[in-house]
Amino acid sequence: MPSDDGDLDDLARRAAEGDRAALEDLLAAVQPRVRRICGRMLLYPEDAEEAAQDALLLVATKIHTFAGRSRFTTWLHAVASNSARGTYRTLKRRAADRLTDEVAQAHPDPRTTSVIAGSRLDLLEALEVLGASHPDLVEPLVLRDVQQLGYQEIADLLDIPLGTVKSRIHSARTAVRPLLAVSD
Predict the structure, then answer these.
(1) RNA polymerase sigma-70 region domain spans which residues (predicted)?
(2) Scanning 5, 79, 100, 105, which has its CA 20 to 30 A from the CA of 140?
């Protein structure tokens, strides 16, 4: 097993070049990290696990797109964060599609409503609203405030200047702040 991020970078480069054994080792090594990343965004373990599995599948199928401009772990954070947000959107859509059926039932299916009832609903909803009007602001905000990556890591990952990263994060925070305000 890789002992540090440098080892992961090496495995990722080899996997991106088509080394199947390196890909299998890489996926095994990053699985716990991917679960933690998804768990930060999705309250319920089942939802986080679904997002983590989707993220691992994306890593396996898209590893060839890892260009090495940033650390592999930075790239991985972006993939896992986007997967968690995608899982949230899917669960929300499923819940809306089944709303009529669930109203008729005495006990709604928790698998389709768990994230909707979760305490992070306000953040995920705010990200959806922000994404509709300013999609370029969402990823930097998630990478900084949810995944806690450094500004330079985000700049490297997104291949944009550091000042642009800081500006986008500031703009995103300004836009989501009123959406997260607690009402009395």
Answers:
(1) 28-93
(2) 5
